């Protein structure tokens, strides 16, 4: 009962080392921006580079925006919220997508898109952070865990626990046992 915009890239075979590294670096950017703590009234364009850093570290980039506002019952791409230079400062209560990616022309493309709510951070002074409200696992087949920092792994495990706690009981209540088993496999630590 609302607007959403979630993207997951999956690979049905054996990914190449480049595909796996690119996917992992896109995921790292997604995590780094999602767990960022920042001062109130920070413009999205100021923090956007956190989503690109892991790609930039190895000379990769993407040619699209990092995110956009999400309307409640309106537009999927709702201006003026987002991470471009002309967007308004981020404030608590705003919904935005966080969607880094990577594309290799003629070969493959990757995008990981979550919806996040801007919320107050648990800090002494008033700061903000994001609460990811998308509850969809990432493709484990494409994650090179050796590239992730301890903090990124902890974030990923906490995210998977949230998915299990919120989606798992609903699947069981609806007697969707096969789907519940899939969820458990794909949200293991």
UniProtKB/TrEMBL annotation:
InterPro entries for the chain: Creatinase/aminopeptidase-like (IPR036005), Pept_M24 (IPR000994), Peptidase_M24_C (IPR032416), X-Pro_aminopeptidase_P (IPR050422)
Keyword Nuclease on entry: no
Signal peptide annotation: none
Pfam families: Peptidase_M24, Peptidase_M24_C
GO molecular function, one term: aminopeptidase activity
Domain Peptidase M24, residue spans: 2-119
Gene3D superfamilies associated with the record: Creatinase/methionine aminopeptidase superfamily
Protein name stated in the entry: XPP2 aminopeptidase
Gene name tied to this protein: Xpnpep2_1
């Amino acid at each position: 009962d609302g607007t959403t915009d979630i993207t997951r890239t999956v690979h049905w075979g054996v990914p190449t080392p480049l595909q796996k590294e690119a996917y992992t670096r896109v995921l790292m950017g997604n995590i780094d921006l999602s767990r960022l703590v920042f001062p109130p009234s920070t413009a999205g364009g100021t923090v956007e580079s956190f989503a690109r850093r892991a790609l930039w570290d190895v000379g990769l980039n993407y040619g699209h925006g990092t995110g956009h506002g999400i309307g409640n019952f309106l537009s999927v791409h709702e201006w003026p919220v987002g991470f471009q230079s002309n967007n308004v400062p981020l404030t608590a209560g705003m919904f935005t997508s966080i969607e880094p990616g990577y594309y290799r022309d003629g070969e493959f493309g990757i995008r990981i898109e979550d919806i996040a709510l801007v919320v107050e951070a648990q800090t002494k002074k008033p700061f903000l952070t994001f609460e990811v409200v998308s509850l969809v696992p990432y493709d484990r087949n494409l994650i090179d865990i050796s590239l992730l920092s301890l903090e990124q792994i902890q974030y990923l495990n906490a995210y998977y626990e949230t998915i299990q706690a919120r989606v798992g009981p609903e699947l069981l209540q609806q007697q969707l046992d096969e789907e519940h088993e899939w969820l458990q496999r794909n949200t293991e630590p």
